[in-house]
Amino acid sequence: MNRPRGNPQIYHYLKKYQEDPKSRVFAPLAESYRKAGLLDEAIEICRDGIRHHPHFIGGHVALARALFDKGDYEATIKELEPVVLDAPDNLVAQKLLAESYLILGRLSDSLAAYKVLLFFMPQDQEIARLVQEIESRAYEDGVMVLQKDPIPLKSYSVKTADTAISSDPGVRKKEWVSRVVLLQELLLRVERIKLAKQY
Q1: CA distance 126 to 145
Q2: Can you say whether the dihedral through the CA atoms of 96, 100, 101, 105 is positive or negative?
Q3: pTM above 0.70, yes or no
Q4: How many whole angstroms separate alpha carbon 30 and alpha carbon 55?
Q5: What mean pLDDT is predicted for residues 176-195?
Q6: The domain 8-146: what is its CATH number?
Q7: How far is CA 99 from CA 80, 169, 179, in A?
Q8: Cα–Cα distance measured from residue 195 to residue 146, given in angstroms and rounded to the nearest whole number
Q9: Secondary structure letter of residue 166 according to DSSP
Q10: CA distances from 119 to 14, 52, 81, 114, 185 (A)
């Protein structure tokens, strides 16, 4: 691995990483490499670290940032989609995912990610502007279609509660009785379960 001269932050994390290669310090080390422009080293360190910590979100985000900087947007998306499913409030991951989708022309996906960001940061004017621009572009490109006319609903009539089941009082009574019996059976099962847990 290349070692840039005069970068104390890298040496600090590298020393910790060498002391314990299975620690989570790989993520800040990779981030330091990325900031120094050593993208291949950052990616390599992250992939090694993720093998030991597959559920460490910080490691996946660090890898995605290095992949993004390298211009591998498909790999960035592949890395981040599971992250935002588990942690939609991870704003760094959401923003990187939204930007990657946008660069690849996946407008509806980008719009969805930016809207999640806007949900968590409603005061952010830049994100609000981006959401508006992407929506406009998506409508212009036909990616999204504005529903102008409501979908016609089948005609229906509103019934009162006592006629909702049936207009025939005999049938109605029978149906209510069967519902009450079912409810009683369910309540008895719950009571049996409660009693079984006590012993």
Answers
A1: 24
A2: positive
A3: no
A4: 17
A5: 72
A6: 1.25.40.10
A7: 12, 62, 54
A8: 56
A9: -
A10: 37, 33, 18, 9, 45
Positive or negative torsion for Cα 59, 64, 65, 67:
positive
d(CA 57, CA 42) in angstroms, rounded, equals: 16
Q: How far apart are CA 9 and CA 33, in angstroms?
A: 9
Residues in the chain: 199
Q: What is the C-alpha to C-alpha distance for residues 185 and 182, in angstroms, rounded to an integer?
A: 5
Q: Which residues contact 2 (CB under 8 A, 6 or more apart)?
A: 38, 41
SS percent in the chain: helix, strand, coil, step 5: 70, 0, 30
Question: What's the CA gap between 143 and 139, in Å, rounded?
Answer: 6
The residue assigned the tokens 């660090």 is 62
Q: How confident is the model at residue 11 (pLDDT cuts 50, 70, 90)?
A: confident
Mean of pLDDT values over 31-51: 94
